[in-house]
Write a structure and sequence with these properties.
single chain, mainly alpha, 11 helices, about 45% helix, about 0% strand
Length: about 270
């Protein structure tokens, strides 16, 4: 009877040094080993951990690791030595003042919440080596905030009683309250049915169903059809025929005598 195989917990993503951070990947890999009880006791030779690490490397990252352990080959180098070689390759020498410059020039970005802003500052301060980290974080959190009621509220606080955690909480509360007040002050949206029952006092109700681009063949207006036009029985002063006004007459001949006797019609409503 074959022994049962215990499945591993979680999954390991592929590491590509071109677009991923080695330190982050190494930390996640170590947590995966802990979850699956792979350590120096259960894997004394490090064979399993080495195989898992190398299997998670992309082709180019695998080739890089191979170059770093030359003249040896990866299949004979200990797991700890492979990790050490990668650590030395990817760990860059940091300049304290350069790191602090990145920290001091940072500002809260549009759409960035106060909790996100505080978290980003902690990341920027990781290699700044501040003697009083919490004080530096609080100062930069307030000074780098976007202008508004939130920053004004923190400026009014007693600095000795304020901590970074409290500053984040207060700023978030002010933002929430301001958003709620703005929503309450906004006028309610007009119901769609209002447009259906709205009455245009300047228009004849019988003409409301006529398309705006269709002209009446009697008077030329767009507000109604010819069969309801009140000028339908008027006599045209151009052709002397009933059923349309002069402006809509299509007759070329102009009856000057009749035009002078009757005069031009004037459309008034």
């Amino acid at each position: 009877m074959s022994a049962s195989v215990t499945p591993f917990f979680g999954a390991i993503s592929t590491f590509d040094h071109h677009n991923q951070d080695w330190v982050t990947f190494r930390s996640r890999l170590q947590q995966w080993f802990i979850a699956n009880e792979l350590d120096k006791e259960s894997d004394k030779a490090g064979v399993k951990r080495r195989a898992i690490l190398l299997s998670a490397l992309s082709d180019e990252s695998y080739q890089l690791a191979s170059n770093l352990v030359l003249p040896k080959t990866l299949d004979v180098v200990d797991y700890e030595d492979i990790v050490k070689a990668l650590d030395q390759h990817f760990t860059q020498k940091r300049c304290g003042f350069a790191e602090r410059r990145h920290f001091y020039v940072a500002v809260q970005q549009p759409g960035e919440s106060h909790a996100q802003w505080a978290a980003r500052l902690r990341g920027l301060a990781a290699h700044c080596k501040f003697k009083n980290l919490e004080e530096a974080l609080l100062d930069k959190f307030v000074m780098g905030m976007a202008p508004g009621a939130e920053r004004e509220k923190l400026f009014s606080m007693d600095i000795e009683e304020l901590t970074l955690a409290k500053a984040v909480e207060l700023a978030s509360s002010v933002r929430t309250a301001r958003a709620a007040a703005a929503a309450a002050a906004a006028p309610p949206a007009a119901a769609a049915s209002d447009a259906v029952f709205k009455i245009d006092k300047g228009r004849d109700p019988d003409r409301s169903s006529v398309p705006s681009e269709e002209k009446c063949s009697v008077c030329g207006r767009k507000s109604h059809k010819a069969n309801v036009c009140r000028f339908a029985k008027f006599k045209c002063t151009k052709c002397n025929q009933r059923g349309h006004l002069r402006r809509m007459c299509k007759t070329v001949k102009y009856l000057e005598a009749e035009a002078n006797s009757e005069g031009d019609d004037v459309l008034t409503e």
